[in-house]
Write the structure tokens for this entry.
Amino acid sequence: MSNVLYEKRDGVAYVTLNRPEAMNAIDEATNAELEEVWCDFRNDDAVDVAILTGSGQAFCAGADLKTFIPKWENANMLDVRKNIPKGLGGGLTRGQHRLYKPIIAAINGYAIGAGLEIALACDIRIASENAKFGVFEVRHGLHQGDGGLVRLVAIAGIGVALDLTLTGREISAQEALSLRLVTRVVPSENLMQAAEETAQMIRRNSRNAVQSAKETIFELIGRPLDDALRLEALYGYSSLGDFSDARERLAKFIKK
């Protein structure tokens, strides 16, 4: 792989977009490499959490418009329908969004356009104080089509989704924090450390419980209250399995 760097250590998968000369914009080759990465991450029991970041000065500047626009301006409706099962970011935005292993976005610079859509598709977002965000698609005659609107509404609400989408304005890391688009803002030099600390916090918990919790949250979205409560009980209690992990953790807790 050349457009995506992928390594694993201490139970964590490190995924780095590696097109710094293009601000890590997603072209077809990068998307294909990311799809392979997420498939491997899903299937490798040696890793529990992934950290996604970008090389250079950007997290991701979105889709590579030099190839993206010609591809879709010549497309027909069948092409559009075939695209539905596979979103950007190797399917992270749509298609492989049911990865139940947690993914942390370490946002080191610009996360704009589809780059913001990819960041929003991650489970936890930690931003460098130098990070910048924006729905820049509207500047180019487009709007989000890979989960950006769905997740903006779910994460920040209709008002924020309308504001950012209709204006196409750039926002700072601190404003992104105030809008709940990210959970933390840290100095640039501390970004990966913060992401790694978060990853290890997750890894200290039960793997089954973590993955079941993420799956349950996905299942609860949009459900009526009674259905949501029923599903939470079903998924929560069944995630215990044979109770061996719970018993072992309880024994360690009692010893303390």
